[in-house]
Amino acid sequence: MAIKHLRTAFASQYQPGQPARLVAGEALQEPGGDYEALHKQMKRLFNSKPGKKYGRFSEDVGECPFSAWLKDYLEEKQTFATMTDRLFGQWQELLNGSQEEFDGHLMVVHDALADSEVVYLFILETDSAMRFDGSQKLDATDVLSLSRLNLAVRIELDDWRDGKDGDNYMTLVHARGTGDPGELFIRLCAFTNSVDVEKETTTFLDAVEAFAKTSEPEKAGEVRAKAYEFCKDQHALGEPVAIEALSSYLDESQPERFKEFASKTVEMPETGVLHPDHRKVKKLVRIAGSGGGMSVSFSSDLVNQAVYYDRDKDALTITRLPKALREQLQRYLEAREE
Hints:
Number of strands: 17
Number of helices: 11
Order of helices and strands: EEEHEHHEEEEEHEHEHHEHHEHEEEEH
Radius of gyration: 25 Å
Distance between the termini: 65 Å
Structural class: alpha+beta
Low-confidence stretches: none
Helix content: 25-40%
């Protein structure tokens, strides 16, 4: 991994309705060192964020000109500094109209990977910290947060320029609670959602469940577990699930078997790629539910082994209780008896 170009700007809007303040840093080429470490951590947070959205650039270039600026930069019609000057200027204009307070650093990174190039936009947040100054007086200061990332976007440049993977070359992190600034960030990135993650999650689950049922009962659990493991690994890498790769992972001896089965069983996208929510895919290996003061969760492999469900009585019988749970129950009953 190597950063080709990087630039940051701090923007603040403390009085809605008043002009926002923006201070930009210089454009850095191959900054290395601490910048690489910071970028690596932000990428780690980006990849681990659940609920990401997938899409493409808006076609309304007049309203959302970032794609045009980025294209000119990649075609060397303008420098990275000029492109980011325009981007920072638009960010300041957008914040001028914000109805909520905001402060944060916008970091733009052109990242060259081993086999592709990517551009990231991150909104870096800050945490408060205490320190003693040179005269040993306690002083409060702000430091970059290395554990929070609520607004960011990744653009796969090769896929965008080559028209690969349909309209899904942008990945957006847009966490709840970001409010008006979060919506403005989406406008800044010129992002348009083109993937129904909920629908693709259902497609993934239906395909795996149907495929598992074609296996022997003792093998069905293994199929579900491997599918979940593959999906979880892809999520950790920040990548979607390619059905062809999953098919090879599920059955190395017959690598096309799941792919062919899925194409006949469910409606697969033409790209052969799904973007399932890994949190919901966990249903493949765990059964869980809560309500009425009760919360229950257990591995699906335990059904009819240590957990038995009576449909007629709507009753659940659990054997081989975990040691900690058993001890809690015993202490509680002993206290009640006393």
